[in-house]
């Protein structure tokens, strides 16, 4: 795997910092980043580290996504990670299996796991943790404050009345797999003022035509990847039972970037606002401005 390592800062800046500070040791280490949210945070902090590989969940920014992959976040192998000769691994809490991380540590690789829950409040926690590991504490404080401000403004917005929404996980079958409670999608829906039509169930579950008709979602939200896997928008509205829902009858669909919205990284607050504006545009400003 001969790819150009990703350097978050320009060569000129790196050389200047090397002359002015003693913190240049990080730039001489080879890093593997595990987790899309961690990778996006590193980029947002403009961290002065050399990233040589990533896992499959890293899709942004393009410079990191272009690096060699060591496999899927939850199904890693020590051999794959060690093949890129890393000194350090910075990993999301979902990374594993645990024994693989232990094997990496046993052979001298520094493994740091950012342990943060799947919540909006965890975004700033991750920012500060990544900033600590990459010696960008000041930048981390600034970024965390900005993200907190955005999330606090989101809380002040009124909910949408009588607008149950459903989030469909990307799939290729005839029975849609939708988000219930205890999912990132459920948190996102509530954050923008939407009621989750399937919030009474837990996790991601497949729902039949009868359930669609009963819960009557008025809006469908899914990723472009999910829509492509399904076969496009026409295929969505032809799913069994979809024609029985207000969403299907009005063909109300919003397509989102699932990694940006649901990854709970530094792009998530802005993506929540973007989703909010998309809902307002779809439903009309009069509906959007109804007080709670």
From TrEMBL:
InterPro entries hit by this protein: ABC_Transporter_SBP, ABC_transptr_periplasmic_BD
Record's protein name: ABC transporter substrate-binding protein
Listed PROSITE patterns: FE_B12_PBP
Domain of life (superkingdom): Bacteria
Family matches, as Pfam families: Peripla_BP_2
Signal peptide interval: 1-27
Organism whose genome encodes this protein: Vreelandella zhaodongensis (Halomonas zhaodongensis)
Keyword entries, A-Z: Signal
Residue stretches making up the Fe/B12 periplasmic-binding domain: 30-286
